[in-house]
Amino acid sequence: MKILHVEGGRHLYGGAFQVLHLVRGLAAHGHENLLACPRGCALAEAAAPFAEVHGLPMHGDADLPMVGRLYRLIRASRPDLVHLHSRIGADVMGGIAARLAGVPVIHTRRVDNPEPRWLVALKYRLHDRVIAISDGIGQVLIAEGLPSAKLRVVRSAVDHERYAAPVDRAAIRARLQVSADAFLIGVIAQLIPRKGHRFLLAALPELVAAHPEIQVRFFGQGPLADDLQRRIDEAGLGDHVRLAGFRDDLPEILPALDLVVHPALMEGLGVSLLQAASAGVPIVASRAGGIPEAVREGENGLLVPPGDVAALRAAIGTLLGDPERRRALGAGGRALMAREFSIDAMVEGNLAVYRELLDATGLVHT
């Protein structure tokens, strides 16, 4: 089977990392991958051993000429199907291009933010199947009018063994400028409003007063960096909270954390939560979107209502004072990831959708 994947993201995290897992797994199964992505992006280099990479100009939702570029690529490469992995224009422009070329097309939806019903009715008409990465996203799509016959759910995956490897905690903490006896909380998310960093900052003053050993690191980048730094300074939290930027050493950092907090208002599933659970780190997160599929109450973490600062503070405080429960939740996370979020399961899930679609269209597949 020959699959053309289209991914518009420029950074190798979140959805782009899932694309890398998928093309690697498909190649191992003997399938042929082509990848259209922005020129010079990190995914292009990482995926080169597993896919024929085509770096293209990709300028977002208003990039109408993307239709022509993708159409020409489809006509020249003659894939069995096209798999669109992101929005950023790829969902619509890629759908139009595949339709014009007469090739079956699948779109993976990774976010749970709502879309107008009229847009759902128009956009998803372009796609033969829509894959949601969580039941939560699937429910949003159905509520907005997506025909259930088009929807399939294939959860995102994590290389859980990569994050479960033992590390030198003292060395990692020194790298982060954190003392060995600190209680280290990590937030792994883009610095954007819907990730909810502000709720943790609002919860922290009382927690720090009771537990001065708390240290918090915000791992990620985004447009809210200056605003968050201002909030940190105004709250007098500069000795306890730091913006640590985007990190490519998370597999080493995560096992050195005592707790991961994810106070998001919206979340498709949360790849960082899968990574944290794989590393055996307990989690406190919002009960929003697909998060309850990655964080099971009492199994690998605690869930709180989105935006509820008091509940967030109470959940963190509960785990701060209970190391045995933290250890139990960490072990539960590792078991959950191995059982339900393996890369093999994600690859097989996508392959099942490919085969079903090709069978339905009468095309031959292997």
CATH topology of the largest domain: Rossmann fold
Structural class by sheet pairing and helices: alpha/beta
**Strands side by side in the biggest sheet:** 3-2-1-4-5-6-7
List how many beta strands DSSP finds. Answer: 13
The CATH H-level homologous superfamily of the largest domain = Glycogen Phosphorylase B
At the first level of CATH, what is the class of the largest domain?
A: Alpha Beta
- Number of spatially distinct domains: 2
Largest sheet, in brief, is:
7 strands, parallel
Distance between the termini: 6 Å
Number of helices: 16
Mean pLDDT comes to 94
List the uncertain runs.
Answer: none
Task: Tell me the Rg in angstroms.
Answer: 21 Å
Q: What is the helix content?
A: 40-55%
* Reported CATH architecture of the largest domain: 3-Layer(aba) Sandwich
Which overall shape is indicated by the principal axes computed on the Cα atoms?
A: elongated
**What oligomeric arrangement do these chains adopt?**
single chain
The topology string of helices and strands comes to EHEHEHEHEHEHEHHEHEHEHEHEHEHHH
Organism: Allochromatium vinosum (strain ATCC 17899 / DSM 180 / NBRC 103801 / NCIMB 10441 / D) (Chromatium vinosum)
Keywords: Transferase
Domain Glycosyl transferase family: 169-334
GO molecular function: glycosyltransferase activity
